[in-house]
Automatic annotation (TrEMBL):
GO terms for biological process: fatty acid metabolic process. Residues 420-495 form the AMP-binding enzyme C-terminal domain. It comes from Amycolatopsis australiensis. The keyword ATP-binding does not apply. This is Fatty-acyl-CoA synthase. InterPro entries: AMP-bd_C (IPR025110), AMP-bd_C_sf (IPR045851), AMP-binding_CS (IPR020845), AMP-dep_synth/lig_dom (IPR000873), ANL_N_sf (IPR042099).
Length: 514
């Protein structure tokens, strides 16, 4: 008997040809708002949902989309889709109807499962012309489909078959979907477990959205693989998260840096019991050192994981032994991950202290983008994936992500990395956030433009901001232009939408000689 490599059986249940041998089926797999599903109950519901999907329209290779907040039904739909040999497509519920429409059309989804609170968004996006739409919740058709269905026929899903389409953030141009196979997800999970001590007794919060690689790959799937318990969090609220950590004895979660910052600045931070936390992972973008120190000073084992959607997502991660000395470093490569620098003539070269574009290779790295053969081909050099990230490595082997290749500013022939300037800027107590982009300049070719958000009540002016930068940076790195904003434009995962800032800079600043 064959079955999908990714399914509830792999996260707590095993199978033999003639019978099922259960590994702790009574353990809690998922918990949310008073509802608990054991691994046995989850497996049963997934089997019936897979049967319902098969009865409706779904065949091997078809796409099943999901639109909604983090919920138990996301996991049920993911595993049921995989059980059918189909491909799961989680969608960002914070997008517009037109953006959802694009992703439904691009993926060719034949089924859309959505939560009741996204009904208006679904209506705006437009119904699937030849597909099926299922609503979750008490009055939706989701439960009825599960109740009426039996298990599906066995499917011969292979490790190399596609399992998941994850759309990139789309900060520039149209988003594209990375095709992650069952093998990609499995090897990422193995990499995480080789790096971390995940236990079957762990209680993990799933805070980062499940349409994002951080939400799925860093803590959630590894915890389920080990037979631990995962609690999906529908919407991020710092006070609720801190309270839940203390109440439930939460051991781990993954987040993006903006979430960590909001948590440690919440009024209940100092009185929250964090002693149960054995590991907090973050990724998606660098974190300010003051934020990292705030967590480390509370005794929390905070680790930065560096990766990308195309690597499912892990490439490197900090270690508990080295984090105190490297609070904002990206750590060392995962066990089954090869890394190199993009050398002369587009050839792999050893990574070192000189910043260079990072190349990645390994069984967790995807094979290409959905229906984008030319872009997929251009993303690889001699079998290595071009990350687009500029990285340098210390003598002790710890990596530091310097910046994105496309974000680098070439000013007067000098390479200027915005991330370096931003890291210095947020050391200033009056600075809440900072983003630097390049703007065309007649004299220097490009010049830096800094957009700065002041902390509430701060009276920081441009002269004081520049004086701070000049204490820590070479003169050619100091941005030519500075503008204070109330907020920075960000996407759903907290990443700065630099394309908007570049457009603003081009419209606002005069590109004449200094």
């Amino acid at each position: 008997m064959t079955r999908s490599p990714l399914g509830p059986a792999d996260f707590g249940l095993g199978s033999w040809p003639a019978r099922r041998a259960r590994i702790s089926p009574g353990r809690t797999a998922l918990h949310q708002d008073g509802r608990t599903l054991t691994y046995a109950a989850l497996a049963g519901r997934v089997e019936r949902l897979a049967g319902a999907l098969t009865r409706l329209v779904v065949r091997a290779g078809d796409r099943v989309a999901y639109l909604g907040v983090n919920d138990i039904t996301v996991f049920e739909t993911l595993f049921a889709t995989a059980r059918c040999g189909a491909v799961f497509v989680p969608l960002n519920y914070r997008l517009s109807g037109a953006e959802i429409r694009y992703m439904l059309d691009d993926s060719g989804a034949s089924v859309l499962v959505h939560s009741p609170d996204t009904a208006d968004l679904v209506e705006t996006a437009g119904r699937l012309p030849d597909g099926v739409v299922i609503t979750t919740g008490e009055h939706g058709g989701f439960e009825a489909e599960i109740a009426a269905a039996g298990p599906p026929p066995e499917t011969g899903v292979r490790l190399e078959d596609p399992c998941l389409l994850l759309y990139t953030s789309g900060t520039t141009g149209r988003p594209k979907a990375a095709v992650l196979t069952h093998a990609n997800l499995t090897w990422n999970t193995v990499n995480q477990l080789a790096h971390l001590d995940v236990l079957g007794t762990d209680k993990a919060l799933c805070i980062a959205p499940l349409f994002h690689c951080v939400g799925l790959g860093q803590i959630t799937l590894p915890t389920l693989f080990k037979g631990g318990s995962v609690e999906p969090v529908a919407r991020f609220d710092p006070g609720t998260i801190l309270r839940r950590i203390g109440e439930a004895g939460i051991t781990s979660f993954s987040a993006v840096p903006t979430m960590l910052d909001m948590l440690c600045r919440h009024e209940s931070w100092d009185r929250t019991d964090l002693s149960s936390l054995t590991c907090v992972l973050y990724g998606g973008s660098p974190v300010a050192e003051r934020v990292a120190r705030a967590w480390l000073d509370r005794g929390v084992k905070l680790l930065q994981g560096y990766g990308m959607t195309e690597a499912a997502p892990g490439v490197s991660m900090a270690t508990h032994e080295g984090t105190l000395d490297h609070p904002v470093a990206a750590g060392v490569p995962h066990f089954f991950t090869d890394v190199a620098a993009l050398g002369p003539g587009l050839t792999p070269a050893p990574l070192g202290e000189t910043p260079a574009e990072l190349l990645v290779r390994g069984p967790h790295v995807f094979g290409g983008y959905w229906n984008r053969p030319e872009e997929s081909k251009a993303s690889f050099v001699d079998g290595w994936f071009r990350t687009g990230d500029v990285v340098k490595v210390d003598d002790d082997g710890w990596a530091h992500v310097v910046d994105r290749v496309k974000d680098m500013i070439i000013s007067g022939g000098e390479n200027v990395y915005p991330a370096e300037i931003e890291a210095v800027a947020v050391r200033l107590d009056d600075v809440e956030a900072c983003a630097v982009v390049g703007v065309p300049d007649e004299r220097w070719g490009e010049a830096g433009a800094a957009f700065v958000v002041r902390r509430p009540g701060a009276r920081l002016d441009e002269a004081a901001f520049r004086a701070h930068l000049e204490q820590h940076l070479a003169r050619y790195k100091i941005p030519k232009h500075v503008q204070f904003l109330e907020t920075l434009p960000v996407n759903a995962t907290g990443k700065i939408r630099r394309v908007e800032l570049r457009a603003r800079a081009a419209e606002t600043f005069t590109n004449g000689p200094a």
